[in-house]
Structures are given as C-alpha cells and as structure tokens.
C-alpha cells in the first residue's frame, strides 16, 4: 500500500485527476513489476520533460529501500530507462490517453528551447591565461629594468675607458683634475663626476694659458628603453664636449668656428656671438684645404682671411683632416656668451657677459654602438685641444684685423644700446617718478609745518635747477648745430 | 725627449668650476614624465581605469631612468609609490583582468 501510495504520488503529477488508487492497483496487478517498470520509465523521462521533477529521484531510493528484492531489477530498469529514455518518450506518451494532457504544454516543445550556458567571469575562472595583458605589462617592466641596468653599466664602462686613456695626458697638463664643485676650495678628486646615467663631467684647472677646462662626456641614453627604440629609427652619436675658458690676456679678439655643415648652420642661428659677428653664410672647408664636409664661419671678411684664419687653420689642418669624421664643431670666440637668450618684453637689458672661450664638440666613432676600445681614438683630439690652447695665446691679429675687430664690436654694442634705448628710457623715467613720489611723501609726513615748508622750497629749487640745466644743454646743441 | 720647458705647464692657482646650472643643457624629460605619471595615476585611481594605472607605472620608471643624480630621491619614490598604489587599488576594486582595446 505504501508502494502504491508512492506510485500514486509519482503518477499524480502528470494528472491530478488520476487519483483512483484502485485503478492503479489493478494496473499494477497485471504485471508484478509493471508498475515499477512504468514508474522507472516515467521517472527516467522526467528530467527531460517540462514539468519540473520534484520528488522522483528521492522517491526512487525510497522504493529501493523498501523492497530489496526489486532493487536490482529496478536499477536495471532504471538504467534501461535512462538509456532509452529519448526513444521511449513517444512510446511513453502513446500509452496514455492524449485527452489526459489537455491544457498542458507538450513537453517536447521545451526540448527545442536552447539551453543558455553562461560563461563564468574571467576572474573567477582560476586560470592565469585570462590575465595575459597584465603579464605582458609586467614583462615590459622587467624588460625596461633589464635595459636600465645594462645601459647604465655600458655607459659607465665607456666613461671609465675614456678617463683611463686620457688620464695621463690630463694629469701632465693640469694641476687639478676632477673637481665636483661641492667644496669651496678647488680640490682635486681625480675622477669623473657623474651628473646623470649618461652625462659625466670633468673639470681640469691649473695650467698656463687657460683658466680651466670642462669636459662633458655626453653619452646616448642607453639606460632608457624608449630612447633605445628611438635610436633604432634615428641613430645618434655619443659626444665629448670640451669648453676651455681663457684668461683675458690669453686670446686676441676674434670669432671663428669650423665644423660640419649642419652644425655650422645650427650654431649660426643659436649662438649669440656667431649670429652677431659672423653674418656671412658658412664657407666650404675646401677653400682652406680642409675636407669638403666641413664648413667655416669667421668674423673677418675676405681681406684678413688670409692672415688669421689661414694661420690658425694651417697649424691645425693636419689634425682636422685626419680626424674630420670625429669633429662636430670647433668654436673659438672672445665674445662667447652662450646661446641666444629669449628675452622677455619690457625688461631693461644689459649686454650679456662674455668670456674668452674655446669650444670643441667631438663625435665618438661607432654611431651609438661604441665599445670601450673606441675611446682611445679620441686621444689625438685631446692633444689637438691642448695644442690649440697654446696656439691661440700666440696668435695675434695684424693691425688691419684689429681695427676691423674693434669696429665690429663697437657696432654690435651700439646696436644693442639702440635696441634697448627705449626700454632704458622708460626704466629711467619710472625711477625718476618714484624718487619724486618718495620725496613728496616725506614732505607730507613731516608734522612740523615749518619743516614742511622748508623741504618744499628745497624741492622747488632743485626742480628749477634741473630745468635751467636742460635749457643750457639745448642752447649748447643749437650753437653746435649752427 | 722632453725639455724642462715642456714639463710642467701646470700652475698652482687653480680655479674651482663654475656652479651655474646651464639651462640649455637641462633635459625636461624627467619632469614631464613625473607630471604625466602623477596625472595618470590620479586618473587610474579616480576613474578606476586599469590601463591608466599601468601607464603611470611606466611613466614613473622612465622618469627615474632619466633623472639627474642631484635630484631628490623622495620625489621619485613618492611618484613610484603613487603609481603602484593606483594599480593595486584598481585591481582590488575590480579583479577582472584588463581587456585589450581591440
């Protein structure tokens, strides 16, 4: 009866009207295990049908527990039922009266609805593969760090190689080699001063003919990966820049530059002294016996060219010709003041301070792919630098050249004064007004009326004097004009 | 053969180097990269954009690589820490992996 009740429940889901337990009992009596077979078929078909399976699977174990004898058969029946469930679908329903299922949706329709399987969100998936972008980023960072270490070491090795090959020459010529400027007195450190991962400085001083020499090793930024990639598109050289500052008595007045055509064009625009004094376009080096690729900028015109430039160049020509590929620019000037400063409007200008300077810029061979051995090839160039320091001291302009040079300098100064004339006048005017205002305030603040009156009279007298002076001047000018 | 005249052109009165900073030689890259790094890390934190935070980390690395040795390490470290915190915060708030823009 218990079993019958259970089967009743099971079958009852399909048709609530089907509540006649007796019919069921009759039905079951025909075949001892018919009920179970049908039940098992029904229960097997349940998962695929629309009416949700409610109690069938739990009901089955209950049945199994109840009747041990039937367990095995049931299981077999179940297995069969599950395997053949698809094909038996239609058979199952054909056993029943179709009228029983009026008003119910045909379960077969639901089989056509697609099952939507949602994807598990990536971060819950427990696989590292979904984080490939992050892994890429971290790999990029690691590559950057590796490149930083390698680049830094390479630059450091190049700098040390340069210093080792040049140390002897420098120490024999200068009393002070290497001073980082941190202490007030000049102290020789004997080593390069690292400003950056790619810039090394060396200050040498203590020599006749010059005040001091600043050497800057400007390497390519090997420690920055972006720069390395940019250099693959546009190769750049390592450079050695040397700036020799001279005492006033060590150099005569001339401005002169030689270097690659590009460098000369650029320097003529950028450098204050070259743009002012060397107004002509750069001349080809072939005129002076130098290689074609070099150009020359000089202050003197054709007249005294022969005297100074040639004199200077003939002494240095063998150096320059042999190492023309390494020379970027050589610039000698007694009016050196750096690059053109962008001037703000309304500011009274003073003539920029000038210093007698020799500037050398050399390219390290290798176009970026330099090895420490290449540094030895720069040694002859350093010899040239030392040689030219001594030479410039002895070089003197002839009388014509000197006159021309003086005229040039006077002209430049005059131009400058004219340009700034208006500004200077305005500045003077404002200063005068301020003085008057200050005086008036002082007079006003005086409490004693007597003192006030006296101060006012004094101010008036001063103004009168000024006006008289001006009138005198005007009269004098008129007389002169006449 | 060196004569006595060739020897010792050195003098004892040495001048110290001029300590003026040459503005034309100064490279603005580390300062720009520092600023960019800060902007990107703020964007990454506020707008919860992962790629902003990653770019900020790169910017701070580039700024460090280009910096001068006289520069303050505190500045570098603070920008670096800010960018790392931007990355960490973006992932804590949204652990999903970054999706490529394509």
Automatic annotation (TrEMBL), chain A:
<dbReference type="InterPro" id="IPR012879">
    <property type="entry name" value="CCDC47"/>
</dbReference>
<dbReference type="GO" id="GO:0032469">
    <property type="term" value="P:endoplasmic reticulum calcium ion homeostasis"/>
</dbReference>
<feature type="region of interest" description="Disordered">
    <location>
        <begin position="26"/>
        <end position="108"/>
    </location>
</feature>
<feature type="compositionally biased region" description="Acidic residues">
    <location>
        <begin position="26"/>
        <end position="45"/>
    </location>
</feature>
<dbReference type="Pfam" id="PF07946">
    <property type="entry name" value="CCDC47"/>
</dbReference>
<feature type="compositionally biased region" description="Basic residues">
    <location>
        <begin position="472"/>
        <end position="482"/>
    </location>
</feature>
<feature type="compositionally biased region" description="Basic and acidic residues">
    <location>
        <begin position="400"/>
        <end position="416"/>
    </location>
</feature>
<feature type="region of interest" description="Disordered">
    <location>
        <begin position="400"/>
        <end position="482"/>
    </location>
</feature>
<keyword id="KW-1133">Transmembrane helix</keyword>
<feature type="compositionally biased region" description="Pro residues">
    <location>
        <begin position="49"/>
        <end position="60"/>
    </location>
</feature>
<comment type="similarity">
    <text>Belongs to the CCDC47 family.</text>
</comment>
<feature type="compositionally biased region" description="Acidic residues">
    <location>
        <begin position="62"/>
        <end position="89"/>
    </location>
</feature>
<protein>
    <recommendedName>
        <fullName>PAT complex subunit CCDC47</fullName>
    </recommendedName>
</protein>
<feature type="compositionally biased region" description="Basic and acidic residues">
    <location>
        <begin position="429"/>
        <end position="471"/>
    </location>
</feature>
<keyword id="KW-0472">Membrane</keyword>
<dbReference type="GO" id="GO:0030867">
    <property type="term" value="C:rough endoplasmic reticulum membrane"/>
</dbReference>
<dbReference type="GO" id="GO:0005509">
    <property type="term" value="F:calcium ion binding"/>
</dbReference>
<keyword id="KW-0812">Transmembrane</keyword>
TrEMBL record, chain B:
<dbReference type="InterPro" id="IPR005351">
    <property type="entry name" value="ASTER"/>
</dbReference>
<keyword id="KW-1133">Transmembrane helix</keyword>
<feature type="compositionally biased region" description="Basic and acidic residues">
    <location>
        <begin position="1"/>
        <end position="11"/>
    </location>
</feature>
<keyword id="KW-0812">Transmembrane</keyword>
<dbReference type="GO" id="GO:0044183">
    <property type="term" value="F:protein folding chaperone"/>
</dbReference>
<dbReference type="Pfam" id="PF03669">
    <property type="entry name" value="ASTER"/>
</dbReference>
<feature type="region of interest" description="Disordered">
    <location>
        <begin position="1"/>
        <end position="26"/>
    </location>
</feature>
<keyword id="KW-0472">Membrane</keyword>
<protein>
    <recommendedName>
        <fullName>PAT complex subunit Asterix</fullName>
    </recommendedName>
</protein>
<comment type="similarity">
    <text>Belongs to the Asterix family.</text>
</comment>
<dbReference type="GO" id="GO:0045048">
    <property type="term" value="P:protein insertion into ER membrane"/>
</dbReference>
<dbReference type="GO" id="GO:0005789">
    <property type="term" value="C:endoplasmic reticulum membrane"/>
</dbReference>
């Amino acid at each position: 009866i218990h079993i019958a009740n259970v089967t009743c429940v099971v079958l009852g889901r399909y048709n609530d009207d089907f509540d006649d337990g007796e019919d069921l009992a009759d039905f079951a009596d025909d075949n001892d295990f018919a009920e179970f077979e049908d039940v098992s078929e029904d229960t097997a078909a349940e998962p695929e049908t629309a009416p949700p399976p409610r109690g069938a699977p739990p009901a089955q174990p209950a049945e199994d527990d109840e009747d041990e004898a039937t367990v095995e058969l049931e299981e077999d029946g179940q297995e069969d039922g599950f395997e053949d469930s698809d094909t038996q679908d239609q058979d199952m329903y054909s056993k029943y009266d179709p009228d029983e299922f009026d008003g119910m949706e045909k379960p077969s329709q639901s089989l056509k609805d697609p099952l939507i399987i949602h994807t598990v969100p990536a971060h819950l998936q427990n696989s590292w593969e979904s984080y490939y972008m992050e892994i890429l980023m971290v790999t990029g960072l690691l590559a950057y760090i590796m490149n930083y270490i390698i680049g830094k070491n390479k630059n450091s090795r190049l700098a040390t190689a340069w210093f080792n090959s040049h140390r002897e020459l420098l120490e024999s010529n200068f009393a002070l080699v290497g001073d980082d400027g941190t202490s007030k007195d000049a102290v020789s450190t004997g080593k390069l001063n690292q400003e950056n991962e790619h810039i090394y400085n060396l200050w040498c001083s203590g020599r006749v003919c010059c005040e001091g020499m600043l050497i800057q090793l400007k390497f390519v930024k090997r420690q920055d990966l972006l720069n390395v990639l940019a250099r693959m598109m546009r190769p750049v050289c390592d450079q050695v820049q040397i700036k020799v500052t001279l005492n006033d008595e060590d150099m005569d007045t001339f401005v002169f530059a030689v270097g690659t055509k590009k460098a000369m064009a650029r320097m003529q625009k950028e450098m204050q002294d070259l743009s002012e004094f060397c107004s002509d376009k750069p001349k080809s080096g072939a005129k002076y016996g130098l290689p074609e690729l070099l150009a020359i900028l000089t202050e003197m015109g054709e007249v005294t060219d022969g005297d100074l430039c040639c004199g200077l160049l003939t002494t240095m020509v063998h150096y320059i010709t042999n190492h023309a590929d390494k020379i970027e620019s050589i610039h000698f000037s007694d009016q050196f003041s750096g690059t053109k400063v962008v001037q703000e409007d309304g500011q009274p200008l003073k003539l920029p301070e000038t210093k007698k300077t020799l500037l050398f810029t050399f390219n390290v061979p290798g176009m970026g792919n330099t090895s420490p051995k290449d540094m030895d090839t720069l040694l002859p160039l350093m010899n040239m630098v030392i040689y030219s320091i001594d030479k410039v001291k002895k070089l003197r302009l002839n009388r014509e050249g000197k006159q021309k040079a003086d005229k040039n300098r006077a002209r430049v100064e005059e131009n400058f004064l004219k340009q700034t004339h208006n500004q200077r006048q305005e500045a003077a005017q404002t200063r005068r007004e301020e003085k008057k205002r200050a005086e008036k305030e002082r007079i006003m603040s005086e409490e004693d009326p007597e003192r006030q009156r006296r101060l006012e009279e004094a101010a008036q007298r001063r103004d009168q004097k000024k006006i008289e002076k001006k009138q005198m001047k005007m009269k004098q000018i008129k007389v002169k004009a006449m | 053969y060196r004569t006595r005249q060739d020897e010792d052109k050195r003098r004892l009165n040495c001048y110290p180097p001029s300590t003026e900073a040459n503005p034309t030689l100064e490279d603005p890259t580390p300062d720009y990269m520092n600023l960019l790094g800060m902007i990107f890390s703020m964007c990454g934190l506020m707008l919860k954009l992962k790629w902003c935070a990653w770019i900020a980390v790169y910017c701070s690395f580039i700024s460090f690589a280009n910096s001068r040795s006289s520069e303050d390490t505190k500045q570098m470290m603070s920008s670096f820490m800010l960018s790392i915190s931007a990355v960490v915060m973006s992932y804590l708030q949204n652990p999903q992996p970054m999706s490529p823009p394509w």
